[in-house]
Design goal:
Layout: H1 9-17, H2 25-41, H3 48-57, H4 59-62, H5 68-86, H6 96-100, H7 131-134, H8 137-151, H9 165-178, H10 186-194, H11 203-220, H12 228-241, H13 263-272, H14 276-285, H15 311-338, H16 340-346
Helix pairs in contact: 1-3, 2-3, 2-5, 3-8, 5-8, 9-13, 10-11, 10-12, 11-12, 11-13, 11-15, 12-15
Bound molecules: zinc ion (2 copies).
One zinc ion binds next to helix 15.
Length: 347
């Protein structure tokens, strides 16, 4: 186990950079706990940006299977920092973290966000953001909110609305399919979608994947799909995703799970769930008020939006998807048995 007491910030930063979703808990948890403790001790302080940087750097680990105590400590510290720093006035119209939201692949940030030194590399053809904007409390609070929302999706307010451009184009392509006017080959699109789940997805990415599979399964199960490999790929994908759900208990009242009747809306949510900016779109749709509160957790007045990532809800949804797909597969097989001549021809 690493002893963090006498390490310099540079040495700590090296250790943080080596923490990934595959890191063993006995190595990663002490680093997370140490960093969270330092942030929680002074969440609005001079050094807060350093500790927020540390938790951003370890977000790949935090978003997958951190130890429970480390997870709670990190969440508490990030929320405290967002609250302390987020309300301070500044002269900036926007902050560098907003531009970075589009580049968070599978919503885990792997690059240098500048929070440690104040220096952030310029995007192509853009001037580098100045240190004052990078280290501005508004920017540090923004990063704290993003990581908290990746760890506990749909519980954090004041995340800027807007899914990454790539996700918006996925929604468009799939909306052609769920609305029955595909403009790309649905066989190809659905097969690619089915294979699109990372091996250690964040809660939002996993939920989004299962929602997308459900939104598109009616189409895959219809006679519009003429190649059974599409059904095979989707069944394999959903079966592979199920064991990745956490075994947290459902904290919702009966009837509080989302309504999944509208495939077009479900398709949008499927991709909105996969990023902080996309989830902010969902929250906006449900009418979250951005101004007064930092978090929605425990707010009985509003719909429980985090039900979209509830393991029990998602397990039920996945089972529904699987039964639709396996039924279609069976009738596919029966049809082939009934028409031996066609089978011989196609073989
Ligand atoms: Zn600012
Ligand atoms: Zn639930």
């Amino acid at each position: 186990m690493i002893d963090t007491t006498d390490l310099t910030v540079e040495q700590l930063a090296d250790a943080w950079r080596n923490v990934h979703s595959t890191s063993p808990a006995d190595e990663a948890d002490p680093l997370v706990m140490d960093c969270a403790r330092r942030l929680a001790a002074d969440p609005g302080g001079e050094q807060a940006h350093v500790w927020v940087y540390g938790l951003v750097g370890m977000s790949g680990y935090l978003a997958w299977r951190p130890g429970r105590a480390a997870e709670l400590a990190a969440l508490d510290a990030l929320r405290a920092a967002a609250k302390e720093l987020g309300g301070r006035p500044c002269s900036h119209d926007d902050h560098p973290y907003e531009a970075e939201m589009d580049a968070m692949e599978d919503e885990v940030w792997l690059g240098d966000n500048g929070l440690l030194t104040g220096e952030l590399a310029a995007g192509e053809g853009e001037p580098a953001p100045d240190a004052a904007r990078v280290l501005c409390p508004g920017n540090v609070a923004g990063w704290a909110r993003l990581v908290a929302d990746v760890m506990a999706p749909l519980t954090v307010r004041r995340v800027p609305v807007g899914a990454p451009v790539y996700h918006q184009s996925c929604i468009q392509t799939l909306s052609g399919i769920v609305n029955d006017y595909p403009y790309c080959d649905p066989h190809e699109v659905l097969t690619d979608e089915a294979a699109d789940l990372p091996s250690r997805p964040t809660r939002g990415v996993l939920a989004g994947y299962l929602v997308t599979m459900n939104a598109t399964c009616w189409y895959a199960a219809s006679e519009r799909i003429t190649d059974r490999s599409v059904l095979d790929a989707m069944i394999e994908g959903v079966r592979g995703a199920l064991p990745l759900l956490r075994d947290d208990e459902c904290a919702h009242d009966s009837g509080d799970h989302p309504d999944t009747g509208d495939a077009d809306y479900l398709n949008q949510v499927g991709y909105f769930l996969r990023s902080p900016g996309g989830r902010a779109e969902i929250a906006e749709y449900y009418g979250w008020d951005d101004e007064d509160e930092e978090y929605a957790e425990g707010d009985a007045e509003e719909e429980a939006l985090d039900a979209w990532v509830c393991p029990e809800f998602l397990r039920g949804l996945a089972e529904q998807t699987l039964s639709t797909l396996t039924e279609a597969l069976e009738s596919f097989e029966t049809a082939q048995d009934d028409e031996p001549s066609e089978q011989t021809q196609s073989a």
